[in-house]
Amino acid sequence: MSTLARDLRYAFRAFGKSPAFSVAAILSLAIGIGATTAIFSIISALLLHPLPYKDADRLVIMWNTSPGLGITRDWFSSAQYFDIKNNHHGFEQVGLAIGGNYNLTGEGEPERVGVVRVSSNLLPLLGAQPAQGRLFVPDDNRYGGPNVVILGYGIWARRYASNPHMVGRHITINTHDYEVIGVLPKSFSLPREVMPTLDGAEQCDLLLPMPQIPTFTTDRGHEDYNIVGKLKPGVTLEQARAEMNTITARLRQDHPDVYPPNGGLTFVILPLLEQVVGNVRHTLWLLLAAVGCVLLIACVNVANLLLSRAMGRQKEVAVRTAVGASTGRIIRQLLTESVLLALCGGALGVLFAFISIHWTHVLGPNSVPRLAEISVRGDALLFTLLISIASGILFGLAPALRIARVDVLTTLKDSERGSAGASAMWGRGNNLRRLLVIAELAISVVVLIVAGLLLRSFIRLQHVDPGFNPSNVLTLELTLSGDKYKDPVVARAACHQLLDHLEQLPGAVTAGGVSSLPLSAMYAWGPITVEGRIPPLGEKFINADERVVAGHYFETMQIPLLKGRFFNDQDTVDKLPVAIVDEFMAEQLWPNQDPLGKRVSFGDLAAKPVWTTVVGVVGRIRQDTLDADSRIALYMPHSQYISRLLNIVLRTTVNPESLTSAVSHELHEVDRDLPLYGVVTMDQRVAESLSRRRFTAVLLAMFAAFALALAAIGIYGVMAYLVIQGAREIGIRMALGATQPNVLRLVVRQGMTLALTGVAIGLIAALVFSRLVSGLLFGVKSTDPLTFTLVAVLLTIVALIASYIPARRATRIDPMISLRSE
Length: 822
What we know:
By secondary structure, the chain is an alpha+beta fold. Helix content is about 50%, strand content about 15%. It is built from 23 helices and 22 strands.
């Protein structure tokens, strides 16, 4: 310990003698280690720590899929829930949930809240314990059972001011009275993934029991439920999936009218953690690889700094060796200095990581799952300590071994003469330094190309035509719930009244409504039948998106009319039903035909067809995401097909947000109990749909900028050092007649040789590594020539500038002074 203490004191004194070197090295390492710690903290919270539920490693979520019908992820019917519950023996428990948005009225302002109906076993399955009152019991799920509700912690604290006496009180939900029987603790919340159709809500505010109506065990038509299961101890995921395949095979055989052969019905089982994290897993590993490259470049830079510094300490090491210091003792001292540098960089890097995590919370609320759980925890600090020590050894070992093998007699003799000896500018002693520069340039090329591909992909995505014009459009959600709107005539009248009032506002142009707003995670689809169409062999039915529209929806969203007409006031319930289809549906179902006048039927295929006539064709829109094509779609008029949940859209000539208060006034003029919620501009919805890609692209661009800066510093540092070490050789050349341009070209050529070699190696490596991100790209190939060319040119220019500055300094060397000093 005393020896270590002496080594540390000596190291601190050495740093004090070279403050510029120490600051440069610590800052370089802080950037690399801090960024690595921040990304590791995110990975640790999202991927390495279990979900905050009891037996989280045994929790799974299930999805209903029919690949043959283009359904890759759907919810379940209540009958399918019992198919699984009664026939699958690998589950300890199976719970059911369905989400929605309800109006909470009575005490305080009307509010739109997220509500989830659950089977009585779902909360115990997740390990929930009430903070007050009780949880649901089986009798609460009884059809005609009591109207009871459990409050989530958030709404209990926000709306009811953490009232300790809420249990037993009554609240009004969708105009019905409910008794509060419990309050959930702050530490518990339902995962977003078990709350289907919870449109626009980020959390569950209220929980209601799941009433088991008489048709609950037989209804296969309404696939609106999510299923969560807990595997029995010892049951593997593969075993559970094999048993599920047996169940779905039996269902396809027993119910061919519901599950056609061409559909390929399958129930998919996923670990709940995998579902929560989603496709962010690959992005996180990509970011970790990027920051690892930045850290490696920082280590290379510091290694080069240490090599340069080591050349100036040769005499010191030679003297210590001459008086009896062993090679091992000298290596230990030098490694102590490099590890101490790394630990200082790591300490500063932790501060950088805290700042990065703070900005992650600010910038990525809808881009990062489990955001509230992300912090710099103990495992991240331990990771920082280990990575700091490893980095110190990594960048310190080569300089330590190099200087420890110094020839004592030669070094002392050369120091007396003042000769640079083997350290001359083009001597072989500098090969290691050159190799390190080539390596960091090659790594920088890979990072820059991957970042460039993702940035180009993001830019391409921003310019995708969504099929509508989002500019100057305000959106809000309208739900006409409760007894007063049970009559469709009353519901339609309220909707049309609101749209008429909105169109009269100053600055308003047109207003409309739609049941499923684009880019809002709202969608509804169902099977359709086309009159006169002979389906291919094995096809039972096809699916189409179904959207109910009101008012001037198409005009407001500026979705173009390609054929026929829009809906009008004559399309009423007492007239023949009509529909508008998108161009994709027209192309798929009536190729080379006029779709106007064609008829389709949708809904229960077992019932007698109710034919709907196509009266118009509109442009295709991007419904789900900008980077994925939508299904075929048809639109139905609100005047014929009632929808009590509509997304209102209002096109304006002014800033849409400036009309929010006026819209609220008009809404309350229609019904004072209707809450104003989901008020967002369409531009904001488009931006939000790109948030995860933007988050990834921004982070990678930042890391690429770090890599570029460190690479520039690296090549500049090496060339500056080589110029200093080669001053005597340059002086001799100039004394023999070399001109300043000759020297300039000579030095720049040396730097550009290193740069071009590193760029060439990096381009080859990028051809391999860029394929790993091909799944994250849109509209750009992983071998995109423009990106590769721009990165190569950029690094070449940066290297040229970094080489030119030391070269200019070399041309100002006075040959007489240089030779006299020797």
